[in-house]
Design brief:
It is an enzyme of class 4 (lyase). There is a cross-link at residues 145-147 (5-imidazolinone (Ala-Gly)). It is found in: Cytoplasm. The chain has 20 helices and nine strands. Helices cover 54% and strands 5% of the residues. It has helices spanning 15-22, 32-49, 75-86, 96-110, 119-130, 149-159, 175-181, 193-198, 202-232, 242-245, 251-264, 268-271, 285-288, 290-312, 336-364, 387-403, 425-456, 464-474, 487-498, 501-510; strands at 6-8, 28-30, 90-93, 134-135, 138-140, 164-166, 172-174, 320-321, 327-328. With 514 residues, it is mostly helical. Helix 9 (202-232) runs antiparallel to helix 14 (290-312), helix 11 crosses helix 14 (290-312) and helix 17 crosses helix 19 (487-498). It has two domains: 6-200, Orthogonal Bundle (Fumarase C, Chain B, domain 1); 207-316 and 350-510, Fumarase C, Chain A, domain 2, CATH 1.20.200. The mean pLDDT is 94. The strands form four sheets. The chain has a three-stranded antiparallel β-sheet. A two-stranded parallel ribbon has the order 1-2. Strands 3-5 form a two-stranded antiparallel sheet.
């Protein structure tokens, strides 16, 4: 495993720490403070377990069966049974990065000392992360209330040496075998521990953090795409002036407009039509209103970041162990705060992609492109140019609109009406992941198309920043010419969008973009 060690304690994790563990395989270590807090809360749980009075999650059943008092001799079996029975997911495997994020976030909640688990149980979870052992978690199974029960149960199942995992090499293996090879003793669950391992919103929160990380980059890439399209379509940059943007003081709008001004600076193409003969005083909305749409997306993202940061400071479990030793039931496991922002983000993702597709279409339409050849084809009629690349964009945008329908407005009661209102936050997170991937492809196609259009404006040269983006793209994608296989070029452009290479190329000229 690579990267610096991420220390896990009661303090909130940072976004980059979650990403480092989830994507980059960084190791984790529990802090001394976490071990001390877990020791103290575990002592409270053991004391309560010895009492004859029932305590939910310690000496009772769960959910609709919480009224049954469980005798001491059955409590260990109770904790194992809840993990086995709740590991009821189905469908495709969830991505490794999502499972690792979920494991880390559950570990951090355990490290707060508010769940009452034994320190050795948390240490076993950390050991799985450090060994690169990833439990197999399935797509379907969480309602996003009482936490991500089924997904977290598959993680907990691996912790006790049962179920299926993937090892550090990605091979599917029985958990008992993989743990033994890694020298990890399976956890032996005591009172309350099974419930503590599965009762959190860690899956949906992990996916939110990863989506936020990706969207920060994609919205900057969308600004680059818009700047290239404005330039290629002989649009005006006067509408991006700071004094015009200040008339509507949304912070995201100001940032996007500043990016566009920086990207279009010193462009020969822009200068070529600034004279008194230019009649292009107003561009189409997809060009002129880019800062307003991209900026609103940025402001929505900022709100999601705020919610995620609060969640990263939370201890989600039911019941919780309070510092004075009380074990109290609560509703903090409800996923609504996370579910709402996951749904919110899907809306601007669809809209930013929709605007990107409209700009692309303008570059391909001979009647609206300002003199560019039809479909940017080498020999229109013989060649189709980027005609079908726009079809691909349109298909993705249509899908993104469907993915923007909120999941969190749907609630299906469960557990014999004990859990009669649920968040569907896991579903919101799953569809947002698909939407983010779609946005990357749509923006990549716009950049690919705009780069071709800018090349066709020769001998006029684009600005230094957009020219640097074209040059970086040309390292992977050849310049305009007769028709060729487009799918690999789209894939290459999408990879450059996702990994930030095109942003880095622009920033080498402009300095940091917002």
């Amino acid at each position: 495993m690579g990267g610096a060690v991420v220390e896990v304690g009661p303090e909130p994790l940072a976004f980059d720490q979650v990403v480092a563990v989830a994507r980059d395989g960084a190791a984790v270590a529990l802090s001394d403070e976490a071990l001390k807090l877990m020791d103290a809360s575990r002592a409270h749980v053991e004391e309560l377990a010895a009492r004859p009075t029932p305590v939910y999650g310690v000496s009772t059943g769960f959910g609709a069966m919480a009224t049954r008092h469980i005798p001491p001799e059955l409590r260990r079996r109770l904790q194992v049974n809840v993990v086995r029975s709740h590991a009821a997911g189905s469908g495709p495997e969830v991505e490794r990065e999502v499972v690792r994020a979920m494991m880390l976030l559950r570990l951090r909640t355990l490290a707060t000392g508010r769940t009452g688990v034994q320190p050795r149980t948390a240490q076993t979870l950390a050991a799985l992360l450090n060994a690169g052992i990833t439990p197999v978690v399935h797509e379907h199974g969480s309602l996003g209330c009482s936490g991500d029960l089924a997904p977290l149960s598959h993680v907990a199942l691996a912790l006790i040496g049962e179920g299926t995992v993937r090892d550090a090499d990605g091979r599917a293996r029985p958990a008992a075998e993989a743990l033994a090879d890694a020298g990890i003793e399976p956890a032996v669950l005591g009172a309350k521990e099974g419930l503590a391992l599965i009762n959190g919103t860690d899956g949906m929160l992990g996916m939110l953090v990863l989506a936020i990380t990706d969207l920060r980059r994609l919205l900057t890439a969308a600004d680059i795409a818009a700047a290239m399209s404005v330039e290629a379509l002989l649009g005006t940059d006067r509408v991006f002036a700071a004094d015009l943007q200040e008339l509507r003081p949304h912070p995201g709008q100001a940032l996007s407009a500043a990016n566009l001004r920086a990207l279009l600076a010193d462009s020969q193409i822009m200068e070529s039509h600034r004279g008194p003969d230019c009649t292009r005083v107003q561009d189409a909305y997809s060009l002129r209103c880019s800062p307003q749409v991209h900026g609103a997306a940025r402001d929505t993202l900022a709100h999601a970041e705020l919610v995620a940061s609060r969640e990263l400071a939370s201890a989600i479990d039911n019941p919780v162990v309070l510092p004075d030793g009380r074990v109290e039931s609560n509703g903090n496991f409800h996923g609504a705060p996370v579910a709402y922002v996951l749904d919110f983000l899907a809306v601007p993702v669809a809209d930013v992609a929709s605007m990107s597709e409209r700009r692309t279409d303008r570059m391909l339409d001979r009647g609206r492109s300002g003199g560019l050849p039809a479909f940017l084809a080498d020999d229109p009629g013989v060649d189709s140019g980027h005609m079908i690349a726009q079809y691909t964009q349109a298909a993705i945008v249509s899908e993104l609109k469907r993915l923007a329908v909120p999941a969190s407005v749907d609630s299906i009661p469960s557990s014999a009406m004990q859990e009669d209102h649920v968040s569907m936050g896991w579903n919101a997170a799953r569809k947002l992941r698909r939407a983010v991937d779609g946005l990357a492809q749509v923006v990549a196609i716009e950049i690919l198309t705009a780069a071709r259009a800018l090349d066709l404006r020769t001998p006029l040269r684009p600005g230094p920043a957009t020219g640097a983006v074209v040059a970086e793209l040309r390292r992977r994608v050849p310049p305009p010419g007769p028709d060729r296989h487009l799918a690999p070029e789209i894939a290459a452009a999408a990879e450059l969008v996702r990994d930030g290479a095109l942003i880095a190329a622009a920033e080498a000229v402009t300095g940091p973009l917002s």
